[in-house]
Design a protein that fits this description.
Elements lengths: L8 E5 L3 H12 L3 E6 L12 E4 L5 H8 L4 E4 L6 H8 L9 H7 L2 H10 L7 E4 L2 H11 L3 E5 L9 E4 L5 H7 L5 E5 L5 E9 L5 E3 L4 E5 L2 E7 L3 H4 L2 H15 L3 E10 L2 E8 L9 H4 L4 H9 L13 E8 L6 H5 L4 E5 L10 E9 L1
Parallel strand pairs: 1-2, 1-4, 2-3
Antiparallel strand pairs: 5-8, 6-7, 6-8, 9-10, 9-11, 9-13, 11-12, 12-15, 13-14, 15-17, 16-17
Helix pairs in contact: 1-11, 2-3, 3-4
Length: 357
């Protein structure tokens, strides 16, 4: 395994804040980044050496992009796996692989893989028609939640079903798209398992943060997690490592869990750097972004130890980002703004991390 030499160009598919922070980490290790995204001025393009604007299903633009990079990675899973397959077509290495993307971009796939490896999920059923919906709600019971099989994040593509009479309206809300009906979970807390797997198969874990969501969007992540989570982390890690190995994953992989009275319940996974581990930039010896770059480039993985006794990351959503001057005046606060010019309700504009020594 020959590491990618500094000075080489890493292609990042996707131009959001995750790509932005990846590009910053890559630059610190001596790499250039080339961002590919359909947006006119994505946040990641501001800190990258090169930017190509192109659609996810534009094979010519993707091939031109691939011809200008030495290695490709992606910053989010809502990318068409076939588009990425066109992008690389055997010409440049892609990490994580299309297989990781294909599994995690379709909820039934990821749940089936987790269950196959001994993990537990809330009861769920696939829904592709009105008949499926009626049968699924009858079998699963209510309260339940309807989630699109693909292209859902930050609470988007979801609808609650509190009674069977609400099922049809929920399906209309998500556009009558293929979905899963999932029994709503009575959980104690939410947490995630961020890990990074190298090209050699070695795995490192960060501390599992306890996560708090607001309106379906991550609001706060804290490490160390409380006792309701701490006792379930090892079991969740064992499952996460099995999934990473089965995928042949290279780079950061994050699995989200509910801590319940019966143990950890898998919720979903992301084959990429993850919002719940943004705290690692200041709170860990090696951040998730640096370790992702190290992994995909074939470099040794870095130390994931905490840099303090307690770390808290709070997302700045919508108008909350207007508090930037106040946050900067706070001793020990680490502010990250994503370069987005339009605060909107539910839009992640940045985050702030606080490390307690």
């Amino acid at each position: 395994m020959t590491p990618l030499r500094p000075g080489s160009t890493i292609g990042i598919v996707g131009g959001g804040q995750l790509g932005r922070m990846l590009a910053i980490a890559a630059a610190q290790l001596g790499y250039k980044c080339h961002v590919y995204a359909p947006d006119e001025a994505p946040p990641a393009a501001e800190v990258a050496a090169h930017f190509t604007r192109g659609g996810w299903r534009d094979p010519e633009a993707l091939r031109r992009f691939a011809s200008q990079i030495d290695l490709a990675t992606y910053e989010f899973e809502n990318v068409d796996p076939h588009a990425l397959a066109v992008c690389v077509s055997g010409t440049v290495p892609l990490f994580p692989s299309v297989f990781s993307l294909d599994i995690s971009a379709y909820r039934p796939n990821e749940k089936e893989m987790v269950e196959k490896h001994g993990g537990a999920c809330a009861p769920w059923r696939l829904v592709e028609s009105e008949e499926d919906l009626t049968r699924a709600v009858a079998e699963i019971g209510t309260p339940a939640i309807l989630k699109t099989c693909s292209f859902g994040y930050d609470g988007k593509g979801q609808a609650r079903i509190d009674t069977p009479a609400q099922a049809q309206g929920a399906w209309e809300t998500i556009g009558r798209n293929a979905a899963i009906v999932e029994r709503r979970v009575d959980f104690l807390a939410e947490f995630s398992v961020p890990l990074c797997r190298g090209r050699d198969g070695g795995v490192v874990f960060w501390d599992s943060p306890e996560n708090v969501h607001r309106d379906g969007i991550l609001s706060r992540s804290t490490v160390p997690a409380g006792p309701q989570v701490a006792g379930q982390v090892e079991e969740a890690r064992r499952l996460s490592a099995k999934v990473a190995e089965r995928l042949g994953h290279v780079g950061v992989l994050t699995l989200e869990f509910f801590a319940t009275r019966d143990g950890p319940l898998f919720n979903e996974m992301a084959p990429r750097v993850h919002n719940s581990a943004h705290w690692t930039i200041e709170g860990s010896v090696t951040s998730q972004f640096e370790n992702h770059v190290r992994a995909v480039c074939g470099l040794p993985l870095g130390d994931t130890s905490l840099t303090g006794e307690r770390v808290e990351m709070v997302n700045l959503i919508g108008e909350e980002a207007n508090r930037w001057a106040e946050i900067l005046a706070e001793p020990g606060a680490h502010l990250h703004l994503y370069g987005k010019d339009e605060p909107r309700p539910g839009r992640k504009m940045g985050h702030v991390t606080r490390v307690t020594a």
